[in-house]
Write a structure and sequence with these properties.
Layout (H helix, E strand, L loop, with lengths): L1 E8 L11 H13 L3 E5 L6 H14 L2 E5 L8 E5 L4 E8 L7 E7 L6 E8 L5 H12 L7 E7 L18 H4 L13 H8 L3 E2 H4 L24 E5 L1 H4 L2 E6 L5 H4 L5 E6 L3
Parallel strand pairs: 1-2, 7-8
Antiparallel strand pairs: 1-12, 2-4, 3-4, 5-6, 6-7, 8-10, 9-10, 11-12
Length: 269
């Protein structure tokens, strides 16, 4: 069974006040790429007005959505799935995360195996907080299960070069990413997750070093050019990974400050 997943930090769900042009571009991308699973970060406002925007996204994409509320920041996370995937259980965790963590267990066609999906958005404020959040994610990389963890980790990878424009960031933004030496980008969060058994699919398939932030229309803001959005998989699922892509198009250049990440898996039946 081929499975396509798309992970995307949408920057306030693609809305700037009443201007929803970015949201429309994001929906167009989902409909063009037709992922089986969409893992969303910064799903801001999808709970408002009785979940009107959530239901609108479901209607426009033909996917079913599950929303994890981030009560402190409002930067919710969400997971959308497409038939024939069927939900088994959904858990929202904001107690252990700066924003929230969405975890959805789904039944794969045939009913012989389940897949656990996790959409994460780690704290932007510093590596120490992110390492604490990562400790809750580390234990989920069971070597006998199909588990997928994606999202915005606000962290550099041990496999990627130093961001070329890191020194150009204003000090108050650069401090959010600094290692203990006070000079280089911290890589401890991803190193911690990989040590626990998570496999960096982008690195495994040759995508390390391809930045996911900032997009062309959001340069000179709060990011150095780096990969901070990841597709991580448990070892059994990572063995099924077939492709990985950072989607860089004229539309994604402005639809968010992050580029979306797409990966495909070929699962045994």
């Amino acid at each position: 069974m081929k499975l396509t997943i798309l992970s995307y930090n949408t920057l306030f769900a693609g809305r700037d006040g009443t201007d929803d042009r970015r949201a429309a571009a994001q929906i167009a991308l989902l409909n063009a790429r037709q992922p089986d699973i969409f893992l969303m970060q910064e799903a801001k406002g999808l709970d408002a007005n009785g979940g009107a925007w959530l239901y609108q996204m479901e209607a426009q994409t033909g996917m079913r959505g599950f929303l994890a509320i981030a009560p402190t920041t409002g930067q919710h996370v969400a997971i959308f799935i497409r038939a024939p995937l069927q939900p088994i259980a959904f858990v929202s965790d904001h107690a252990h995360f700066h924003h929230a963590l969405a975890t959805l267990k789904v039944a794969l066609p045939g009913g012989t195996r389940a897949l656990t999906l996790m959409s994460a958005h780690l704290c932007p404020n510093g590596p120490a907080v992110r390492r604490r959040e990562a400790s809750y994610l580390a234990v989920q990389a069971a070597a006998d299960a199909f588990t997928l963890l994606t999202g915005d980790f606000n962290s550099a990878s041990p496999h990627d070069p130093e961001p070329a424009d890191f020194d150009a960031l204003p000090a108050h933004h650069r401090a959010r990413y600094l290692a203990e030496d006070g000079r280089t980008a911290d890589r401890s969060v991803l190193a911690q997750l990989e040590a626990a058994g998570w496999v960096d699919v982008g690195f495994a398939l040759g995508g390390a070093g391809v930045p996911t932030v900032p997009t062309a229309e959001f340069t000179g803001t709060e990011f150095a050019s780096m990969r901070c959005d990841y597709v991580l998989a448990s070892k059994p699922l990572a063995d099924c990974a077939r492709s990985y892509e950072v989607i860089r198009t004229p539309a994604t250049d402005w639809a968010s400050d992050h580029y979306p990440v797409l990966a495909t898996f070929d699962l045994p039946r």
